[in-house]
Write a structure and sequence with these properties.
Strand 5, helix 10 and strand 6 form a beta-alpha-beta unit. The protein is 49% helix and 11% strand. It is globular and about 60 Å long. The chain is α/β, with parallel strands linked by helices.
Length: 217
């Protein structure tokens, strides 16, 4: 077996070392100091530096997300994978929760009866929640499209929309639609994204909101 020289890094220092590597390899960028931790966490999660090019933010996106988290928001995801990846301990320290309606039996039944996707019905459920809502879409473009329709009609006013669905069919178009919305949002333009990226953005915001409250981790 060929001997490979491994970098000796203590387990507790691996993330910090990874972030240092990301910072050194990112190159020039125009992200603000508030946006940069989100970009770096997306790269850390995916090992894909394209997120330094394809992530876009409305000017108020980070502030809106932090305010919602500190206000005990509900984070609504379009997959259980994204929900499971969110640091619910930190979210709970603010009185918030993470939910996903996709697997609920009545959502599936309604979607079948109406001939639409469960993702679309899930967004209608999200629109009925009380309190601040952060919407994190990492998989289903139909969820993002339906959320935009609800926002356009005035039926849904999420505090922040994270629009990072991944794939080939209607993915690019759904993100372009989000960009026309007058709501705070973060989007990964193009085909890339995913549930892991949606969770990474949520976690970056949670960690930023928790600065000075390290006991929450």
């Amino acid at each position: 077996m060929k001997k490979i020289q491994l970098e000796q890094t203590a387990p507790g220092d691996i993330e910090a070392r990874s972030m240092a590597i990301i910072a050194s390899e990112m190159g020039p960028h125009t992200f603000t100091p508030e946006q940069l931790p989100i970009v770096k966490r997306c790269i850390h999660t995916s090992a894909d530096f394209d997120y330094a090019k394809n992530l876009v933010f409305t000017p108020d996106a980070v502030a809106a997300g932090l305010t919602a988290i500190r206000g005990g928001c509900t984070i609504v995801t379009d997959t259980e994978m994204a929900r499971s990846g969110i640091n619910k301990r930190v979210l709970g320290s603010f009185g918030g929760q993470a939910v996903c309606f996709m697997a609920e039996a009545d959502v599936a039944a309604e979607a079948k009866e109406r001939g639409i996707t469960r993702a679309a019905v899930s967004m209608e459920r999200a629109a009925k929640l009380s309190g601040p809502v952060v919407l994190a879409v990492g998989n289903a473009p139909t969820a993002l499209v339906r959320a935009c329709e609800l926002m356009e009609s005035g039926a849904f006013a999420p505090a922040l929309v994270i629009g990072v669905p991944v794939g080939f069919v209607n993915v690019v178009e759904s993100k372009e639609l989000l960009r026309t919305m007058d709501r705070p949002h973060i989007a990964a333009m193009g085909r890339k994204g995913g549930s892991n990226v949606a969770a990474a953005i949520c976690n970056a915001l949670l960690y930023m909101a928790s600065e000075g409250r390290r006991e929450a981790f």
